[in-house]
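Pasting as-is:
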Amino acid sequence: MVGVYSTFLTHPGKETELVKIAISAVRYYIIIHSTLLGFIIGIILYPDFKKGLKYSIPLVILSYSIFYMISTFGVIFLGMKI
């Protein structure tokens, strides 16, 4: 998703403010979505909202680290140049 935003919103060699905002928005979206998913898993497995925190923290760390790896090294893995 980061690659799509950056190629769609930038000109070759130039970065706009919209790209920076889009990447920040995606970061916050991943953190919020992973936290809510952890709470939902906790509610489904145990009918207790507080036990979802046990799932939220690892999900946030895992999903943000995957996002960071893809946004940092994804272009290298695909062999593309921006």
